[in-house]
Write a structure and sequence with these properties.
- By secondary structure, the protein is α/β, with parallel strands linked by helices.
- The chain folds into two domains: 144 residues, Aspartate Aminotransferase, domain 1 (Alpha-Beta Complex), CATH 3.90.1150.10; 232 residues, Aspartate Aminotransferase, domain 2, CATH 3.40.640.10.
- It is built from 15 helices and 17 strands.
- The strands form four sheets. The chain has a seven-stranded mixed beta sheet, with helices on both faces. A four-stranded mixed beta sheet has the order 1-2-3-15.
- A hairpin with a 2-residue loop joins strand 13 and strand 14.
- The two termini are 33 Å apart.
- The mean pLDDT is 95.
Length: 396
């Protein structure tokens, strides 16, 4: 049965993903199950998306109720849940104005346009961006243009001009690129795809100072590292360094396709005006219901407290792996967004963990990424370690 389903997919879908040879059917909590009923412990969470885990009853019921009411209207009209979701998301992110999109790439597109519009309105003549090496911001033309991997950009060149890349956590390399054409600096406080690289306090504070001194906007891409993953609702809050614009997606909808970019009132005053930007499906009633309910559940179930309680145990167990296995170079990251860097190819390890019933994902720099649902318990960490060690033993 599984093979026929996989074959149908391969024959009819454009081959742009290197999929694992399993066909998943349903999920429950920390686990997903394939069409043969095999169980997989999920430490990937659909690329850090399903923060509340699978089949969360209250979340599901809320969405079902909304589907029976209305799930799409034109953005020419208001919907109560859209306003409620915007208010809750602004409160959580520390921003003042939010625009809902369908994805993270779209959120970054909107953030880049917002920065350009800010400069246009203020007549500064600024239009260039500074981004970081090893960054990842999406695959649309604007977002891929500020993604710091040649392999993502080269097949589609010429991409959007006026983008310069600095070294992550190297403040001097950023300063060297700032000029009278720079309108914004975009970075991930914790790089995901780029190898689980955490910004330093000095770097975040330095970027903020550069932006303040030059009327340049600071954009934080929190699409993967936001929504509690690092122990604060958004990663910038852990540094105490507030950006001008923030982008988010993934876990804000727990699997319902939704993203957002948000900005301070100061930026909004000079930024996008009616007609400058839009999204037919962005901010639809179903997506906004998901965002609103996710934020309610975060508060009701004290998700942040749980993350800060369980993440030190994950750190401890992963540090034990580093000490025990010569093939593991180091642990990287923070909270429930961590990685192990290996001295041996991780692609084969990743394949074997799937066979072992453990889902993980790779990142740049020979890193395996650990971004589990935020509801995990210590027993799940122990189970993950046990499965991973079996794979490493077989690979020795």
């Amino acid at each position: 049965m599984v093979n026929s389903k996989i074959q149908a997919g391969e024959e009819n879908l454009l081959h742009v993903y290197n999929r694992f040879p399993i066909a998943l059917d349903h999920g429950e909590g920390m686990y997903v199950y394939d069409t043969d009923g095999k169980e997989y412990l999920d430490f990937a969470a659909g690329f850090a998306v399903t923060g509340l885990g699978y089949n969360h009853k209250e979340f599901n019921e809320t969405l079902k109720e909304q589907i029976d009411k209305i799930y799409h209207i034109s953005n020419l009209y208001y919907h109560e849940n859209c306003g409620d979701a915007a208010r809750a998301l602004n409160q959580a992110s520390g921003m003042d104005r939010v625009f809902f999109t369908n994805s993270g790439s779209e959120a970054n597109e909107g953030a880049l346009k917002s920065a350009r519009r800010y400069a246009y309105t203020k007549q500064t003549g600024r239009y260039e961006f500074i981004a970081m090496e090893n960054s990842f911001h999406g695959r649309s033309f604007g977002s891929v243009s500020v993604t710091g991997h040649d392999s993502y950009r080269e097949p589609f060149e010429p991409v959007v001009p006026g983008v310069h890349f600095a070294k992550f956590n190297d403040l001097e390399s950023v300063k060297a690129l700032v000029n009278d054409k720079t309108c914004a600096i975009i970075l991930e406080p914790l790089q995901g795809e780029g190898g689980i690289n955490l910004a330093t306090q000095e770097f975040m504070e330095g970027i903020r100072q550069i932006c303040d001194e030059n009327d340049v906007l600071m954009i934080c891409d929190e699409i993967q590292c936001g929504m509690g993953r690092t122990g604060t609702m958004f990663a910038w809050q852990g540094f105490g360094v507030k950006p001008d614009i923030i982008t988010m997606a993934k876990a804000i909808g727990n699997g319902i396709p939704v993203g957002a970019f948000a900005m301070t009132k100061k930026v909004a005053e000079y930024s996008l005006k009616p007609g400058d930007h839009g999204a037919t499906y962005g901010g639809n009633p179903l997506a906004c219901t998901a965002v609103k309910k996710v934020l309610e559940i975060f508060e009701k179930e004290r998700i942040l407290d749980h993350i800060n309680k369980v993440s030190p145990y994950l750190t401890k167990r992963m540090d034990e792996l580093v000490a025990k296995w010569d093939c593991i170079v180091q642990r990287k990251g923070k909270g429930l967004m961590q990685g192990l860097q290996f001295s041996i190819p991780v692609s084969e390890i990743n394949k074997k963990t799937v066979e072992e019933g453990l889902l993980l994902i790779q990142a740049e720099g020979n890193v395996i990424r650990f971004v589990p649902p935020l509801i995990l318990e210590e027993k799940h960490i122990d189970e993950m370690i046990e499965k991973l060690e079996r794979v490493l033993t077989d690979s020795d």
